[in-house]
Write a structure and sequence with these properties.
It is a single chain. This protein is mainly alpha-helical and 292 residues long. The protein has one domain. The protein has eight helices and five strands, in the order αββαααβββαααα. Strands 1-2-5 form a three-stranded mixed β-sheet, with no helix packed on it.
Length: 292
C-alpha cells in the first residue's frame, strides 16, 4: 500500500460513525496547536478539556521549552503526504544510575552525558528524555527487529501531552506526572463511546473510561500493554518510564519493523487513525531526529 492509498483509506474511515475498535490513544480528537482548551482541576488531578492533556507542578531536572518545541505543519485528512521519520536509537552506554530507584529502570541504559544535552536542545525535560531513550535502547535488545527510535516515542509524547508539561504540568524527578493526567470521559460526545472497564481504578471514573498518563493510554489498553519501566514492581500509566516502554512495545507489536515507512505509519495509525495525527507525530519525530 502506498502512502497515498493509506491516506485515502484513513480519510474514508474517518467519515464513518465512531464504531471502530478503540486503541491506546483513541481518547479524543487530535488537538490542533494554538487552540484554547478548557481546564478544570479537582482533587489534585488534572481533568482535561476536549483535546488537551495537562497538569501542574514543578519537576526535578526540568528544562525550558521556549524555542525547541516542534511546530508540526498543518495537514488535512485529504493530504497525500503521510510519511515516517528516521529512527534514532540512542547509544547503549548504561552506566549512569543516579538513584536506587533507577537501578532497575530503563533509564539506567542511558548515558546522561549524551541524553541531557540533547534534551536541552530538543526542549524536553531530562526525565522524559531519559525514558524515551531508555525505552528505545531496551527494545533494541528485547525486539531488535523493530528498530523503534527514541524520537518516535518523543513525537507521540509531544502530541499527546507535550511530554506531560503542557500548561504548567511536569514530569517529576521520580518519573511520575505531576499531577496525574486524566483525560475527558469517553462518552461518545467527541470521542469513541467506551464504558468503564476498570471500575475507575486508573482514571477515577466508574462510568466511562478516560485516557491516562503522559502517553494517554485508556484503561483497557493498559490492562494488556501495561509495563514496569522503572523496575519498582508496579505498572503505572502515570509514570513516564512505564508508559514509554508500554508505548514502545505496542508500536513494535503492531508495526513490526518500524524502519519501514508503511509499517511506521500503520503502527502510529493504531493509536489514532487520522492522517493529521500521523503527520503531527512524524513532524515532531523528524524535529527531534534533527537535533540528535
Amino acid at each position: 500500500m502506498t502512502h497515498g492509498d493509506f491516506d485515502r483509506v484513513i480519510a474514508e474511515a474517518a467519515r464513518e460513525e465512531e464504531t471502530r475498535r478503540p486503541s491506546a490513544f483513541r481518547s479524543r480528537e487530535p488537538r490542533r496547536r494554538g487552540n484554547a482548551w478548557g481546564l478544570v482541576t479537582a482533587a489534585g488531578v488534572a481533568v482535561l478539556g476536549v483535546g488537551l492533556v495537562a497538569g501542574a507542578g514543578i519537576a526535578l531536572h526540568e528544562v525550558g521549552r521556549t524555542e525547541a518545541a516542534p511546530a508540526p505543519a498543518e495537514v488535512t485528512e485529504e493530504s497525500d503526504d503521510a510519511a515516517a521519520p528516521t529512527s534514532v536509537i540512542p547509544p547503549d552506554q548504561g552506566v549512569d544510575r543516579e538513584t536506587p530507584e533507577e537501578q532497575g529502570s530503563i533509564t539506567a541504559l542511558v548515558n546522561t552525558s549524551w541524553s541531557d544535552p540533547l534534551a536541552e536542545q530538543a526542549g524536553i525535560s531530562y526525565r522524559a528524555m531519559r525514558a524515551y531513550a531508555g525505552a528505545a535502547v531496551h527494545m533494541s535488545t528485547e525486539q531488535p527487529g523493530c528498530g523503534i527510535g527514541w524520537n518516535t516515542l518523543a513525537g507521540i509524547g509531544w502530541v499527546e501531552s507535550e511530554h506531560g508539561t503542557i500548561d504548567g504540568g511536569s514530569i517529576a524527578g521520580n518519573g511520575r506526572a505531576s499531577p496525574p493526567i486524566v483525560g475527558i470521559p469517553l462518552d461518545g460526545t467527541s470521542t469513541d463511546r467506551i464504558h468503564d472497564t476498570d471500575e475507575g481504578a486508573l482514571d477515577g471514573d466508574p462510568v466511562w473510561d478516560r485516557a491516562v498518563g503522559p502517553m494517554q493510554f485508556i484503561p483497557s489498553t493498559w490492562a494488556t500493554w501495561g509495563a514496569d519501566g522503572n523496575g519498582d514492581g508496579i505498572e503505572d500509566p502515570q509514570h513516564i518510564d512505564d508508559s514509554a516502554l508500554a508505548a514502545a512495545r505496542y508500536l513494535c507489536e503492531v508495526g513490526g519493523d518500524l524502519r519501514q515507512p508503511e509499517n511506521w505509519i500503520a503502527a502510529v495509525a493504531a493509536y489514532n487513525d487520522t492522517v493529521e495525527y500521523n503527520n503531527r507525530v512524524a513532524d515532531a519525530a523528524d524535529h527531534y531526529a534533527s537535533v540528535g
